Amino acid sequence: MSFRLAAYAVCIEGGRVLLARHVPPTGGTNWTLPGGRVEHAEDPFDAVVREVAEETGCEAVVERLLGVDSRVVPTAERAVPGGPEHQNVGVFYLVRVTGGRLRPEPNGEIAESVWTPLPDVARLRRSSLVDIGVALAESLPPTGHVAPVPVGGLIQH
């Protein structure tokens, strides 16, 4: 089984959420939250600020920890065929954008970032991370945990 620790930014402002359009080298596209892998010896708190800057061009500050999500992606559902079962542990932060300008990720897989009205999110092909992050921000569960989001249709791993 492969494993990844990642940090994700939930930026909600004026009824809109900041989403990033991910276009992997293998093709396809889906919307996700700004964020990604925590580097070796990096604090997830620092990783989420770094990832927002890299992927969106914006400066950000962490306002609070929202929660942690752990999910296992079965081999048959992996985006990369033939890969082993994969566990992703995501640390979700409520983040406020403080400066910069939205732009594509240079030499990366984020083609664009946009402020999306929350009611429009349900109509997008998106990562389950979006639903988890929005649910955490809206409910602020004391445990920092929300129910698993079923994958299928417009919601992808």
What is the CATH level 1 assignment?
A: Alpha Beta
- Helix count from the secondary structure assignment: 2
Through-space gap between termini: 16 Å
CATH architecture: Alpha-Beta Complex
Q: What is the radius of gyration computed over CA atoms, rounded to a whole number of angstroms?
A: 15 Å
The general outline is globular
Would you tell me the overall average pLDDT? 95
CATH-derived topology: Nucleoside Triphosphate Pyrophosphohydrolase
Strand content: 35-45%
Contiguous uncertain segments of 5+ residues? none
Q: Could you characterize what this model shows?
A:
With 157 residues, the protein is of the alpha+beta class. The chain has a single domain (2-156), classed as Nucleoside Triphosphate Pyrophosphohydrolase, CATH 3.90.79. The chain is built from two helices and ten strands. The protein has helices spanning 44-56, 128-139; strands at residues 2-10, 12-13, 16-22, 30-32, 35-37, 58-73, 86-100, 110-117, 126-127, 155-156. A four-stranded mixed beta sheet has the order 5-1-7-6. Strands 2, 3, 4 and 8 form a four-stranded antiparallel beta sheet that branches. A hairpin with a 7-residue loop joins β3 and β4.
Give structural attributes.
alpha+beta, 157 residues, four-stranded antiparallel β-sheet, 2 helices, single chain, 16% helix, Nucleoside Triphosphate Pyrophosphohydrolase
Write the layout of secondary structure elements.
Elements: E1 2-10, E2 12-13, E3 16-22, E4 30-32, E5 35-37, H1 44-56, E6 58-73, E7 86-100, E8 110-117, E9 126-127, H2 128-139, E10 155-156
Parallel strand pairs: 1-7, 9-10
Antiparallel strand pairs: 1-5, 2-3, 3-4, 3-8, 6-7
